[in-house]
Amino acid sequence: MNHKPLLTIVLTLACLACSSPLEAQVTTQLDRINWATSPELAMSKAHNSHLPILAFVTSEHCSYCRKMEREVWSNPQIIAQVKAGFVPVKLNASRHRQLVAKLGVRAFPTTIMFTPEGKIINGAKGYMPPNRLAGLLRTAHPAVVAAHRLPSVE
């Protein structure tokens, strides 16, 4: 008697029973920030939506940039806040060298918010935990925050 199919079924069921819901989660468009691919696209979207631009200035070799991507930009409350009130764009210091220099960015990561016309509203240098970034985002667009009653980040 061949027990191989039965063993495969039992092992599969055991693995499914042991895995946590977090391990089974799949990243979808709903649970991440859809960063604009270029500053020009972000400006166009901002003009059409009348929302401010949120720029995350990053560098390829920046460990705190990666930490912010893992721990902050993936936070559900931050994602909700960004989606409700901003046009997000990720600026790579190497690829967008002239713009990053024009903005005077010398530290990574840097987060900057602009009006749809390109006027700087606010910003901060360095890694920010979710609660600090949430506070910064609220300063840029209080009308959107009030209208959507965005969740606070704990």
Cα(first) to Cα(last) distance is: 57 Å
Percentage of residues assigned to helices:
40-55%
Structural class: alpha+beta
CATH class: Alpha Beta
Q: What is the radius of gyration? A: 20 Å
Q: Helix tally?
A: 8
Strand content: 5-15%
Task: Write a structural description.
It is a single chain. With 154 residues, the protein is an alpha+beta fold. It has a single domain (27-148), classed as Glutaredoxin (3-Layer(aba) Sandwich). The chain has helices at residues 4-18, 21-24, 39-49, 63-71, 76-85, 97-102, 130-140, 142-148, and strands at residues 53-58, 87-92, 110-114, 120-125. The protein has a four-stranded mixed beta sheet with strand order 2-1-3-4, with helices on both faces. A hairpin with a 5-residue loop joins strand 3 and strand 4. Helix 5 (76-85) runs parallel beside helix 7. It is globular, with a radius of gyration of 20 Å.
List the helices and strands and how they pair.
Blueprint (H helix, E strand, L loop, with lengths): L3 H15 L2 H4 L14 H11 L3 E6 L4 H9 L4 H10 L1 E6 L4 H6 L7 E5 L5 E6 L4 H11 L1 H7 L6
Parallel strand pairs: 1-2
Antiparallel strand pairs: 1-3, 3-4
